[in-house]
Amino acid sequence: MRWSGGDALTSPTPQQRLPSASKRLPLLLVGALLLAIIAVSGFTIALLQGQRAVLEEAVRKSEIEPVILLANRIEQTVLGDVRAAFRVLKNVPISDAYLSGRLRWMHQQFPEVERVLFLNENLQPLENQPPFERGKGALTIYPWLLQQLRMEHSRSSFSPHRIHSLVETTGGRSTLLVWQPIDDADERKGWLAISFDLAQIQREHIAPLLNYFRRSQSGKIRLQDAESTWVEGAVNWPVGRILPGWQLIFESDPQVTRERLRQMRLVTSGIAGAVLLAMLLATFVVWREIHRERTLLELRNRFIANVSHELKSPLTLIRMYTETLYLGRLSDEQRQQQYYRTILRESERLTHMVDNILDFARVSKGVPTYHLTATDIGRTVAQVLHDYQPHVSENGLQLTLQLQPDLPPVLHDSHGVTQILLNLIDNAIKHGGDGKVVVVNLERHDNQVQLKVRDRGARHCCGTTYKNKKTDPRDNANHSNWGGMGFGLALVRQIADAHHATFSLSSKPGQPGTEATVSFPIGDAVV
Fold it and tell me: Which of 218, 190, 175, 46 is nearest to 123 (CA)?
């Protein structure tokens, strides 16, 4: 490898730092996510527009279910009353001596029963059957009811254990006729038919159920006979198990229906909005991670460029002076000794840089390299400046130490504080200008001990104060503040973090130079 000219370590080009493919890929990924969001948004809007019929059907279903329950409840209530009446006379022969007593008891306990008929196997009334009738005006309809009963019986499939019924309305008066074999074991023994006043059943058994339904549901509910017409737009549900042809009619309140539709649309829209919001958040997170990764890549490349630049200067001097001495181009012994000293100084400088790089790598990975003990930090600073004095003198630097007496003990690592001071002084030597006057100040400020290094060069820190924050090292805002501060100052920031200290770099408008401050916490201030 050649070490001359521009072949030494150089900064990567922009094309090397961020290949075009790596630039395009994040944009393509974010673009794909945005297109997916647009597609999902369009699909959601179309879905919401097409959901109206589905929502209306769902609302209608929610209205039908209570009506079905009410119809079942009415059927069970009427059937219960009918079965109770049949149990009084079932399996009791007409010749039974207790039959008249049972009929009297039924007359008292079942006011809705109008008449009891005993029929033979051909459904003809038996002669000399015990009398039971209530309401003489109803007698004229029984021949017609018996005729309807025979017609229904001829076209239906009958079971001995099943109750059969029909409803007839004459002159505005509805009668429920129910019949069943009088003996469950033998249908040939005849039939028992009981007629009920349906108006009485409605008043005593059905009306309370309808009133309860009206209180719990918003709308109109009524029970209609077989001759009633179908109500369009309402819930029409049959009660045919015991009242053939009859049905419940439920007309819901339009305002309540609209409110239910609105609530269901709100729920659907809320779910769709939550999905879109989740996708937007996912897109933002992906974009943020991509941005952070790109920032880290730029910082890594900038770090490599800074290290290359820092290493290039001592290597160039070492190579140039070594080549001059090796080729014997210098005969003056005094200048030869000067060259040897320069090679030694630059070698030490190169060694210091390598140590800084290794320390920076260890601290960045979280490897514990510092052991903090509560000792006198003033003694540590004074010792470092004393040991560093020869190097200060060689560089023509005027170094002043201002040490406040009786400073409290501070948790610190002497090697870490040495690295902080050496890097801050080296930074002052590089950028301090012609004056090369550096003031090191150590004093207490509130609950901190502040180590300040100030040069008087013409360079300014952009008129800005930079402070490290105890945040995720991947935080690009944190890195962006330090991106142009140099490798040595980046190491100072890392060491300050390891000491629970803060590092700031500032310059005041109108005044030359820059002041670097490391603030160490005292006692309970350590977090």
Answer: 190
